[in-house]
Amino acid sequence: MTTYVINLDLPGAVQSRHLYGHFAEHLGRCIYGGFWVGEDSDIPNERGIRSDVVEALRALNIPNLRWPGGCFADEYHWKDGIGPREQRPRMVNTHWGNVEENNHFGTHEFMDLVELLGTDAYVNGNVGSGTVREMSEWVEYLTRDGDSPMVRLRKENGREQPWKVPYWGIGNEAWGCGGNMTAQAYADLARQYATFLRDHGDNKLYRIAAGANVDDFGWTEALMKSVGCVGCNSSGVASPYQAISLHYYTMSAEWENKGKATVFTDDEYYATMANAWHINTLLKRHTTIMDHYDPCKTIGLVLDEWGTWWQVEEGTNPGFLYQQNTMRDALVASVHFDIFGKYADRLFMANIAQTVNVLQAMILTDPDTGALVLTPTYHVFEMNTAHHDAHVLDVVAKDAPVSRKIGDKKLPALSASASTKDNSALISLSNLDLDHARTITLDLRGREVTGVTARILTAPDVRDHNTPDAPDAVAPREWTEISRVDGGLQVELPAHSYVTVSLDLA
Ligand code: AHR
């Protein structure tokens, strides 16, 4: 039996709600057919934006939404996406499916979506095929008040007041689709672009430089070196950007052989889980480099693309990255969140890729009927909302059973995390073992527990998933296999399950 010791009275760093961030790219059916159906659609919408999608995402309290890419960001020219829709220039989306982009969803539509969702905007600018002036004018158009050329243009297009845009990406994947640059070339460009990304009025930009892919530690080193020492003893020169990003996707094998979303062997499942755990090593190594240059942790790390990447579903456009989502995806998400908390003092934001109809989505919509399905991953996000902006609590395992050896690595059978806010705590428990249930003892110290409730997400088979015909095949329910024991609680965790325990504290 495994015991987890949790000192409820020793809160650690705050884990930002932005760790539960989202990402919407002009890719496949994420924007068109996902968020955006247009004002004339039979599908209920508000100014062209699907109402059921907004309603579902509001229940997740999504903290921020990144847009318009991804790779698309570096070929997007924002002025093509303003003004009367029918007159907007068209372009080819060369990254994703080689389809025509009509630019009907542009700056005003995105900011409208952000307001409907009650979330923060994270706009990703174009470095790869854009200019400093273009990006600088976009910031002016969005955030400046008073009178100026871009403000007048915005007002001509119907928006009097500036919007708030807190987060700004300086290009995307500059090492690849964003321009195939060297680390040093991009580091220099990022400084230049950041200089002209102005704070207008009281809009303060948090500028995010395009960071490394997976284990490209040299890229992180180059960006941090370029910033110089910005720690407590710095020369007082502010960094041109406030954060650097990192991208990491989980597959069951290598890039060329990603595996299928719903058809996989047990071995592929365990290999996937081992790859999900790998984010811990990556965060450790990247943050170690950052600590060297910035010991006071003034520069944030932003994992603005993460999640599972499978082969596309049969019969769908290979460039649209449409995939199903099973209980396995849910556990990949829960493991990531447990690990994110450990780096809460450096990891400021994380964005799952992507919110609707692309990669590890929260929501899938049927292209023919429009039916909407919430995925198992959606439910993990919903079960985690109490972790937003809560203080991390250490979870110390007295005995963590190992379920599999993958190569020379031991894969833990269990994953856990906890946090506290006000007079409450939330404990997340994942049983990654496909065959064995586990009994967990929670040794809860330091504060009196006055109330306990629990919920579970599981399914008979880890391959189970939700469809329009069976929308609740994998859905959370109340969990009663939890009892008080001396000094804490005993919780039953069925095979391949995710359980959250909510505590009221005196
Ligand atoms: O999320 C899909 C793509 O993955 C993004 O456009 C790109 O940044 C990454 O390679």
TrEMBL record:
Domain of life according to the entry: Bacteria
EC number: 3.2.1.55
Range of residues in the leader sequence: none
InterPro entries cross-referenced by the UniProt entry: Alpha-L-AF_C, ASD1_cat, GH, Glyco_hydro_b
EC class of the enzyme, as a word: hydrolase
Catalytic activity: Hydrolysis of terminal non-reducing alpha-L-arabinofuranoside residues in alpha-L-arabinosides
Domain called Alpha-L-arabinofuranosidase C-terminal: residue spans: 304-497
Record GO terms (molecular function): alpha-L-arabinofuranosidase activity
GO BP annotation list: L-arabinose metabolic process; polysaccharide catabolic process
SUPFAM superfamilies: (Trans)glycosidases (SSF51445), Glycosyl hydrolase domain (SSF51011)
Keyword Hydrolase applies: yes
Keywords: Carbohydrate metabolism, Glycosidase, Hydrolase
Coiled-coil segments: none
One Pfam entry name: Alpha-L-AF_C
Subunit structure and binding partners: Homohexamer; trimer of dimers.
Family named by the database record: Belongs to the glycosyl hydrolase 51 family.
Protein name as annotated: non-reducing end alpha-L-arabinofuranosidase
Organism per entry: Jonesia denitrificans (strain ATCC 14870 / DSM 20603 / BCRC 15368 / CIP 55.134 / JCM 11481 / NBRC 15587 / NCTC 10816 / Prevot 55134) (Listeria denitrificans)
Upper classification of the organism: Bacteria, Bacillati, Actinomycetota, Actinomycetes, Micrococcales
